[in-house]
Amino acid sequence: MSQARQLAAEVAVHSTGSGEPIVLLHANGGDHRDFDAVVDRLAAHHAVHAIDWPGWGDSTTTEGPTATGYAAALPHVLQSLGGGPFVLIGNSVGGFAAIHAAATHPELVRGLVLVNPGGFTPRWPGSVAVCRLIGWPRLAGRAMRTLPRLYLRRTTPAVAEIRHRAAEMSTDPHRVEAFASIWRSFAMREHDARPHARLVAVPTLLMWGRRDPVLAWTIDGRRARRALEGAQVATFPCGHQAFAEMPDEFMAELEPFLRSLPSRPPTRARVISDHEPSTTDHQRSD
């Protein structure tokens, strides 16, 4: 059973298990329970800390949260947790924040697992307009209910729970405003993960659901792959959250990566290999 505690003024963490520490970082509009399909398996061999971003889950609400604000806060959260360095498993905005932490505070990070991370969408006029439109308060509540039905492409018990929670939260004006504020921040020029991604020197596993209509593999995914030189890559025939949509396949990729990690972060700069990083493409039929 996980134990919940208030880690800082605005951040709650749910901890379970023992061993090398892992931190789970959820997407906008979710909370620590997004990872329920895999958390028990992770906790069998690891100390797992599932964070609720400010404004979500058991964390307190905060005025005007942004993706870059979450990224700036994460190193302080990790320092407060203690016991690092950590493996960071980040989804969407959680992945964006994880990249920032690994680049700016490498002593805190032992490895990165990025699941459809944000920050790689081109700043095309259309994409900026969509972020601002979804961030419009009058539309944000409807978007909270609708988006999980669009970008979670496989229905599992975990996905059903995520969709149900999103529908419930869409009636809470504080949650809706947090959701809208984060979406508006996606249109900011600072929401670009590539500069920090190029500085990442820890082992990295990039995992992408190829059927995600929001962060498309053919655009965002390939931009992420280019920026994260040397990263292992695994793709899945699912949407935005492989850990909820295809948990068995997700763990089949994750567990060997975790076993391969050094116990301490590298002390030298990353050396770019002459060999292509490994890529796994899961082709399970619907």
TrEMBL record:
Ranges annotated as biased composition (Basic and acidic residues): 271-286
SUPFAM superfamilies: alpha/beta-Hydrolases
Region (Disordered): 261-286
AB hydrolase-1 domain ranges (all copies): 22-252
InterPro entries: AB_hydrolase_1, AB_hydrolase_fold
Protein name: Unannotated protein
Organism: freshwater metagenome
